[in-house]
Amino acid sequence: MEQQMIQAPKVARHTAASYASYAEAQRAVDYLLDQKLPVERLAIVAEGLRFVEQVTGRLNYGRAALNGALSGATTGTFVGFPLGLFNLIAPVASALNLALYGLIFGAIAGAIIAALTYAFTAGRRDFTSVSGMQAERYNVMVDDEVAAQAEQLLVTFVARQSRPSLSMTRARWSYAGLLLLGGLLAGCGGEDNQVTELDRVTSGGTAHTRMVSADPLEKMEFAPAILTANAAEPLRIQFTNPVAIPHSFVLTEPGDVEPVLNAGLANGGRVPPGTAGVIAASDVLNSDAIVMLDVPADLVPGTYPYICTVPGHYDLGMKGELIISQE
Ligand SMILES: [Cu+2]
Prior knowledge:
Layout lengths: L12 E7 L2 H13 L7 E6 L2 E9 L2 H24 L6 H31 L5 E8 L2 E7 L3 H16 L3 H16 L15 E6 L2 E9 L12 E5 L4 E7 L8 E3 L4 H9 L12 E4 L7 E7 L6 E6 L11 E7 L2
Parallel strand pairs: 7-9, 8-14
Antiparallel strand pairs: 1-5, 2-5, 3-4, 6-7, 9-12, 10-11, 10-13, 13-14
């Protein structure tokens, strides 16, 4: 992390995604670079900076002298050892000797200097501490030209991260076991993979992305089976198929499930473009595929069914509802 004065970029930039920790923002940038996004178009900008000094303990003469002795001894040893190596007659023995002297004299000198320093500041600073900068948020900023591409990539990135690996699943189980032992299980039952809502700030206002997973538990169910949204918000749906069986996501007008389903059946599962009653439709997605669907902004408040049009899936329960409410 090389630090230098950074000139304000000459092109318009905006926030592609926002993270609570620097590590997450860093991973997101790494991911974007892996996806061949141009390097010079990215920046991590921390927002809401504050300087935090964490007090770690009390300081008195003894403590100050001990700290000084430790750092003095370390310095003395590392200075003494290489100096001893210059001895032509017995370099190693001399190096060890000088290292030992360095350690002893370093410790004594360090303790004296630290004690004196403490004496001069006594009463004003009787504590030890570690300090650093903290930020409320870390924004990944991108140039406007590549903003759409970056946003799309980052949505995928979040989805990838939230998919638990086998070892993570195991860790969760043992964690759940611990919670159970502690009698703390209440309220934790609803947690599930990938069903997260991701609010992301874009230049044009807040675009809300809802994530829908095809059938993560292999029970012929969308997860989640109910989505809610406000009529006023620009809405996008990210549909992921995490399993081996192909699935689709088709959002229909209220009351148009039957004809849309039949149109899909007549076409091997895939709803032909332009089918009446379809608001937004994915292809039939194979395993690990992800698609973003824009939901038109002019939907009137109401309940809109979404269905899987792969033959047989709807009848087995692959259906859900998008509830659009008035502001
Ligand atoms: Cu399906």
